[in-house]
Structures are given as structure tokens and as C-alpha cells.
């Protein structure tokens, strides 16, 4: 299993290197007899979000669960789907399972057994959790098997934390982190890599340095700063907004705080990722150059990144619809974790057909052509803009390597002893 995980990780990392993509593109042209025939087709799925449950235990002020139709989804992922879905995904070269999505996985009865089975199958596991309730010893033990744990946390201020993540207590979150770390140490195994997943808003950006310091103190080695995808306000309650809505004086200081926080992480030798669209929207506001700027609530789904849109001749450098799938607890399959657009439904279609069905191939074609008007992709903060021609070149190289990797893994499984 360790060899399979090593092959998976190495091939994935290599696939993102531009030099490898340039080498792989000419190979694409000569191997079409046994590789995908066009760029809208994908024979590989590298990672998934498996929504074990759509139920939740908090009412975060910016979450779709609090003020949209997402809050009406109350399902557990069917046990009947799990075996056939995982069989197909393993055939497609699955490497990583995010054992969560919109819901809070630790609220589902039996989530530990599902995660144990995925781990025992040799898959790399991660989870996004709010860690809002005290975990029991069995849950803590299971979490030590995860390669990484992403904890949702936006501020080091306990009072502000409680207002944003209604129903949560910061001390409980930190206690759960410490317990997982201690349990891994007692078992003599490497600790999961802990990451802070942080949504940057007008209420949190000025305190982001304190959050980084808090994280470093508690052994956090990875920090992710995301832009707010703003939905409707919660009427009569505390609300947050995109950082770019701040007055210029405060926004200037906010940007400085964010840049200092990023530098703090780098100086500590830890990893940091900041949404390109977050920085773009802030700088556009400060420079008063906001062409094609999206306003909150004006997207097709009533959601907004508040970020500049894709310019003519450009697209998003997003490979997710080719290598990723979000499997929702009620059966929908989505090509992206940030939109509610379904490309199929496990209740009526096999996953094999969904992952190269007409809806997902059109979704891919929109990215390949840069025709993103009217979609949430137009103003996405998660992926940077890139010339259409360069994106097509990159996807050619990626698809070649992913397909070769999948075939190598399937061959390995066929000849390896059971």
C-alpha cells in the first residue's frame, strides 16, 4: 500500500510541473490509439470529495447551509452506493479522498468505520472539519490515520469566532487538535498535517496575523486563505462581507496584514496558499481598476466572489472537472466543490457514465474555450486566469500523464499479490 501511495503522489506532483507538461504534449499526438481522443474526455479521477453526510452542527454566518437551499439537504451517503462507486474510482486511478464536503462528516453515525475502510484500501485520506464538538477517543484514533486534517477557523478572537461560527467554541477546536496530535505521538506514527482553512472577510482580515501565530503555536503546518463566496445576508443577524468592500484606508491595512501573515508562515518553514482572486479583488479596489467586477448576489446562483472576471482570450487554470468529483450525500455528482451544478445523479446513473457525460464535457469545453460568461467560474477566486491556448497545452500534458499513471496503477494491481 505504501508503494501505491508513493506512486500516486509522485505522479500527481509531476503532472503539475510545466516542464513535464511540455514533454507530455507531443506524446499525446502519437498515442491517441489508447489515450483519450479529445480534451473534453478524462479517463482518470485523482481525488474526490465524499460527502458522508449533508447534515451539520453549526450555523456559520456565510455558509450556504445557513441561508440557502443547501440547508434543506439532510442526507447520508448511501452505503449501497459506496462499493460500486469506489470500484469505479479505483479503476480510474483514485489517489485522495476528502471525507467531507458541505456537511460535517463527524456528525454521521459510523463515519469512523467508513474512513477506516478507505484507509485500509490504501487511499490517502483528508477531511475538512469544524472540530466544534469534543471528539471521543475512537474518533481521535481514527483521525490519526489521516494524512492531513483541514480545520475551518477564521479568527483567533474567541468572541468573533463564536459570532461567525455560531454554536462553536474556539477552545474546543484547539483541544481536539491537541488530542489528535497526542494520540498519534502515543502510537509512534507521524501526526496528520494540520491545516487552517480560513475565509478572509471584512471582519477577519485585520486579525489574520494573530490567527497565524495561534496556528504556529498549535503545530499547524499549512495555511489556506480563501476569498469569501458571499450569499444573501442573514436578516437581522451578524453578517460578513468580502474584504474588498472595506473602505480604502482599512483595506490598505488589511492587505498589509495579509501579506505579513503570509510572510510569517514562510519564515516558519510552513506551507501557505492564498486565493489569487482574493488578492486580485483587493488590489483592484485599491487601484480603482475593477473592470468586469462582480457584485454580491449577481451570479446565477445568488453567490458572489466579489472578484474581477476573466478577460477576453483568457480562462481559469482549473483542471478540477477532469480530475475531481464531488459526490454529494443525496446522490448528485458535481465537477467543483464551489458550485451547486450537478453533472449527474447516482440515484439514476452509474458513475462511469456521469464522469464523461454530456454535462461535464460541456463544462470542460467552457474552460477550454474561455466561454465562462454567466457561470460562477467567471469570477472564481480559487483559480488564476491563464491564456486559453496555454491552458489547452497544459491540459494536454496533464491528461497524458494522468492516463499513463492510471494504466500503470491498474497493471500494478493486476499483478500484485492480493
Keywords:
13% strand, single chain, alpha/beta, 418 residues, 10-stranded mixed β-sheet
Short description:
The chain contains 15 helices and 14 strands. Strands 9-8-7-5-4-3-1-11-12-13 form a ten-stranded mixed sheet.
Structural class: alpha/beta
Order of helices and strands: HHEEHHEHEHEHEHEHEHEHEHEEEHHEH
Query: Helix coverage percent of residues?
Result: 40-55%
C-alpha end-to-end distance: 11 Å
**Alpha plus pi helix count:** 15
Rounded mean pLDDT is: 87
Low-confidence stretches: 32-36, 291-300
Q: What's the number of extended β-strand segments?
A: 14
How is the largest sheet built, in terms of strand order?
Answer: 9-8-7-5-4-3-1-11-12-13
Q: What does the radius of gyration come to?
A: 21 Å
Shape: globular
What about the largest sheet? 10 strands, mixed
Proportion in β-strands: 5-15%
